[in-house]
Design a protein that fits this description.
The complex is a heterodimer of chains A (378) and B (118). Chain A has 378 residues and is of the alpha/beta class. Helices cover 34% and strands 18% of the residues of chain A. Chain B has 118 residues and is mainly β. The radius of gyration of chain B is 16 Å and the shape is globular. The chains are: A alpha/beta (378), B mainly beta (118). Chains A and B meet through helix 4, helix 5 and strand 5 of A and strand 6, strand 7 and strand 8 of B.
C-alpha cells in the first residue's frame, strides 16, 4: 500500500462574488495548489471534484479551459460532504497505485442561487411541509436546552468565538465580529437560532489539494492523512436522541482507530458549524468532552485560539461561509496550513495533529446523510 | 419486478380523533411517512399513530418579512414512531413533552394534510 501525501493546497477568498463563476474560482484554487506543490498540471493523472449545487459535469466545466490531458474526472455529490468525500476516494486510488498524482477540489457559487437557506428537494416529505436546514438544527438546540440546561447565551458564544477566529483569516472576507448581545438580537431564523448563529446563506468559494505518492516538490512540508472516513446516515423513524450526532460519533470512532490516536491527541479541529448548536454537538460526538458537557468545554476557553484544542481556527462555516462543495476541502487546507506553521495570525501553537469533520444532510429519515472525517499530521 | 405505488392516505379520522397512518413491512420497524412504493407482493401493515403524541422538539420558522412565521414539530407516538409536521399554536407554542393532537391542516399549495396542536 502506498503512502499518499498532501503536497500542495490552494484556496480562494470566501465571500460574495456574483461576477465570478464556480469554475473560475475552482481554477484559481487548483492553480494555487499546483504552484504550492511544485507540480505541473500535466503531471496530474486524475481530478476529484466535490460540488453540491452546480450544474452537471462541474469538474469538466472547471478543467476544460485549463486544457487538461483527458484523464479521469470524478464528480462527487455528497451534499456538504462532497469535497471531503472526493478526498476519501482520491486517497483510495493513490494507496492502491491506480494513480501517483491527483488533484482534489471543491467549489460552489451560492451567489448564483439568489440567497436564503440551501435549496432542498421539494419532493421530500419533510421539506414539502416547511423543513429547512436551520429548522432541523433549531429543533436539536431546543431539545438540548431542555435536556442539558443550555442557555441562549452559550449558543451565541459559539458565534462570538468563531467570528473572532474568522477575522484573523484573510480569505474569510465575510467575517465580522459580533457581540453576544448582537447575535441574540439579530433576526430570528428558526427559534432559538438567530441569523448570526447560522452560517451566511450566500458565500462563494473553492479549495484544492494536490496529493501524490511521489516525493514532494512543494514549498511546505507535505502532510500525511492518518485517517479518512466516510459514513452514511442510518434510516431512523423511531424516537432517537436528536442531541446525539450519531453519524459523527460513529465516523470519529473509525477515524481514531484508523489513525491510532484519540481525541486527547488533537491539536486543533475544523468542524461543521453550520449553526451554533452544531459545534456543541460535535464537541461531544468527537470525544472532546462527555455528553452534556459541551457548554462547559466552550466556556473553559479550551476551544478558542490559545486554548488547549482550538476548534475552527479558520472561523468555521459561521464566519468564513459555507459553499458546500468547497467546505470539506477548505477544512483540510486550513489544517494543512496550521500543521505547516503557515496560518499567520490564527496560528495554533505547536499544531501537531488536526481533524476535519463535515456532514451532509437535508433528506427525511436520515438526519445526517453523510459524514466525512480526516485526521492529518506532518 | 413490479413496482406498486400505494395510494392510501397517510391520515384518517377515527372515532377517537384524527390519526396518522404509518406502515410496517415484514421484520422492519414502523415508519412515518408511510412507505410509498412496494415491490411485487411485499406485505404492508398499517399502524395508526395517535390521536395524541408527545412533543419531542419544535421550532418557529421566520421565513422573512413578507411571510408569516410557522411552527414545526417532531412528535413521538406510542408504537415507537416519530412524526414530523406543522405545529399549530396560539400565543405561545406548547412545551416539550406536551400532549399534542393530530389535526387537519392544508398545505400552502392547497393539499389536505395534517398538523399537530395541543
Amino acid at each position: 500500500m502506498k503512502q499518499p501525501l498532501i503536497t500542495g493546497v490552494g484556496i480562494t477568498d470566501f465571500g460574495r462574488f456574483p461576477e465570478l463563476t464556480e469554475e473560475a474560482m475552482a481554477q484559481a484554487a487548483i492553480l494555487d495548489a499546483l504552484a504550492d506543490a511544485g507540480t505541473q498540471l500535466s503531471e496530474v493523472q486524475a481530478f476529484y471534484c466535490g460540488n453540491a449545487l452546480g450544474a452537471m459535469l462541474p469538474g469538466q466545466r472547471t478543467l476544460r479551459e485549463l486544457h487538461v490531458n483527458g484523464g479521469a474526472v470524478y464528480n462527487v455529490d455528497n451534499a456538504c460532504s462532497s469535497g471531503a468525500t472526493a478526498l476519501n476516494l482520491a486517497l483510495q486510488a493513490l494507496k492502491v497505485g491506480q494513480y501517483d498524482t491527483v488533484v482534489v477540489f471543491g467549489m460552489d457559487h451560492l451567489s448564483s442561487l439568489g440567497g436564503g437557506p440551501l435549496p432542498l428537494s421539494q419532493k421530500d416529505w419533510n421539506n414539502r411541509r416547511g423543513m429547512i436546514m436551520p429548522a432541523l438544527y433549531a429543533m436539536r438546540a431546543r431539545r438540548y436546552m431542555h435536556d442539558h440546561g443550555l442557555t441562549l447565551e452559550t449558543l451565541a458564544d459559539i458565534s462570538v468565538k468563531n467570528r473572532k477566529h474568522g477575522v484573523l483569516n484573510p480569505i474569510a472576507t465575510f467575517a465580522k465580529l459580533a457581540s453576544r448581545e448582537e447575535i441574540l438580537a439579530s433576526r430570528p431564523v428558526a427559534e432559538p437560532l438567530t441569523l448570526l448563529q447560522c452560517c451566511p446563506a450566500v458565500v462563494d468559494g473553492a479549495a484544492a489539494l494536490v496529493l501524490s505518492t511521489k516525493p514532494s516538490k512543494g514549498v511546505a512540508t507535505p502532510v500525511r492523512v492518518l485517517a479518512s472516513v466516510v459514513q452514511s446516515g442510518l434510516f431512523e423513524t423511531s424516537p432517537v436522541d436528536m442531541t446525539e450526532a450519531e453519524i459523527t460519533a460513529r465516523a470519529a470512532r473509525l477515524a481514531y482507530e484508523q489513525a491510532g490516536i484519540g481525541p486527547q491527541d488533537l491539536s486543533l479541529l475544523e468542524v461543521h458549524d453550520a449553526f451554533t448548536i452544531s459545534e456543541l454537538l460535535y464537541y461531544e460526538a468527537l470525544g472532546l468532552c462527555s455528553r452534556g458537557d459541551a457548554a462547559i468545554l466552550l466556556q473553559s476557553g479550551a476551544t478558542t485560539l490559545g486554548g488547549r484544542v482550538p476548534v475552527n481556527p479558520s472561523g468555521g462555516l459561521i464566519a468564513k461561509g459555507h459553499p458546500p462543495g468547497a467546505t470539506g476541502v477548505a477544512q483540510v487546507v486550513e489544517v494543512c496550513e496550521q500543521l505547516q506553521g503557515r496560518a499567520g495570525a490564527r496560528q495554533v501553537h505547536a499544531a501537531r495533529i488536526g481533524l476535519t469533520q463535515v456532514t451532509g444532510g437535508g433528506i427525511w429519515g436520515v438526519d445526517h446523510a453523510a459524514c466525512s472525517i480526516n485526521i492529518l499530521s506532518l | 419486478m413490479k413496482i406498486i405505488k400505494r395510494t392510501e392516505s397517510p391520515f384518517r379520522d377515527t372515532p377517537g380523533g384524527m390519526v396518522l397512518v404509518a406502515t410496517r413491512m415484514a421484520s422492519q420497524p414502523p415508519q412515518f411517512p408511510p412507505i410509498e412504493f412496494v415491490h411485487d407482493d411485499q406485505k404492508v401493515e398499517e399502524v395508526e399513530l395517535g390521536p395524541t403524541g408527545s412533543l419531542y422538539s419544535f421550532t418557529i420558522v421566520h421565513p422573512g418579512k413578507e411571510k408569516q412565521p410557522y411552527g414545526l414539530a417532531m412528535v413521538d407516538f406510542a408504537p415507537g414512531v416519530r412524526a414530523f409536521g406543522r405545529l399549530l399554536f396560539g400565543n405561545q407554542p406548547p412545551a416539550i413533552a406536551s400532549r399534542l393532537r393530530v389535526v387537519p391542516f392544508t398545505l400552502p399549495d392547497g393539499t389536505p394534510d395534517y398538523a399537530f396542536q395541543e
